[in-house]
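FYI - complex with D-glutamic acid, inputs then prediction.
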Amino acid sequence: MSGNCNPIGIFDSGAGGLTVLSELIKIMPNEKYIYFADSANCPYGSKPAEEIIGLSDKITRFLITKGCKAIVVACNTATAAAIDYLRGAYSIPFIGMEPAVKPASQNTKTKSIGVLATAGTFKGRLYIETSRKYATDVNVCYQVGEGLVEFVESGKANSPEAEQLLHRYIDPMVDCNIDHLVLGCTHYPFLKPVLERMLPGHITIVDPAPAVALQTKRVAENHGLLCNEPFVHSINIEFYSSSNTSTLKFLVVSNLKQNHKVEDVYFANIKL
Ligand code: DGL
């Protein structure tokens, strides 16, 4: 029995969703993946929700024509704006990003947590509801990470300029006595090396990507969509970008390929 071996689709405004793809590969190495980076429209962070819904709809249609059996919206901002629409408009399952306010609120000892995300994510129903539900007795220091996505997209996540900007955002949170920092944007895990250098040792960085990957596996299982073919030799991924593919290639080579046996890859630039 091979199950359903159609690909799983993943999309983001750019290369941020690679941090989620990496976690998906860890727990489902025998699946095929199609990744779409909407680089022509990146960043999504301060775009109106209606525009993001329109873009997410076009990307979804593209991924469905490629045979995707489920779609991971590997972008907090697109999840906030479009996941309800997508779930209502299409019959395949969609898995979105969860702002990890719940685990941070449950584990904080200082009763103070930091959340770094885009303006769109903070405005979304999910963030507002989870904060109301889980962070009532916790002080939440939240900050819009204006400009951080651009550093990641230009391959400068590890630069002194990125570090300087991060200090502006993070230092007030440290002053707020946070002991957990939630990364509420899938681009931000690329900033982890800088964050780890600058954060005091008692602050835990919370990246929701592993939990989202587990949720994807659960959803695929429940819908009978897992591929049961054994893992053979390398991971099969197609990468598409609505602009040029150079950043994507650079980040795939410098991150994904270093951590996984990703050999069978294909890159294409496509106008939606
Ligand atoms: N990776 C997207 C997110 O998780 C980035 C948002 C943007 O493009 O501004 O929110």
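The chain has two domains: 8-96+210-269, 101-207. Residues 101-207 form a domain with the Rossmann fold fold (CATH 3.40.50.1860).
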